[in-house]
Amino acid sequence: MQNNYVFIKIPSFSTNESFARAAVAAFCSSLNPTIEEISDIKTAVSEAVTNAIIHGYEDEVGDIEIQCRIKGQMVEIIIEDFGCGIVNVEKAKEPLYTTKPELERSGMGFAVMETFMDELIVLSEKDVGTKVIMRKTINSRK
User: Fold this and answer.
1) Is 125 noted as a catalytic residue in this protein?
2) The CATH number of the domain where 47 resides is what?
3) Residue 105 annotated in active site
4) pTM for this entry
5) Which of 44, 65, 116, 125 has the fewest CB within 10 Å, making it most exposed?
6) What is the pLDDT of residues 89-123, one digit of tens each?
7) Catalytic option among 32, 65, 105, 114
8) Catalytic site residue 135?
9) Burial of 138 by CB count in 10 Å (0-12 exposed, 13-18 middle, 19+ buried)?
């Protein structure tokens, strides 16, 4: 099986979150995932894109880049913004930690991503942006 990939660039409008989720799910469909596996991926993508919109760009509009790669039965999803970045990634990954309590943010985004994906890597630099790398192996039902 050949490795496949897709690259999508969207503006950080909240209306694009559902598009990103659906596009990644459609791309992953070639691996014949279960409904649960595709739901896990869609949820993780939603969290990552929402974080980029709300925290990465705050009240500005910027680009969000989404890269997906299929390597065998593993899908790698990279979601990157070029916004304000995260000063302390480990603190940001703590459940219930949020920098936006006034927006009723739960602070569970990274915890959700970690729960639904096999691997989560968060790379961030203040005033440069954040890159979220997620990997999940799809158990083939073929």
Assistant:
1) no
2) 3.30.565.10
3) yes
4) 0.89
5) 125
6) 877 777 666 655 555 555 667 888 999 999 999 99
7) 105
8) no
9) buried
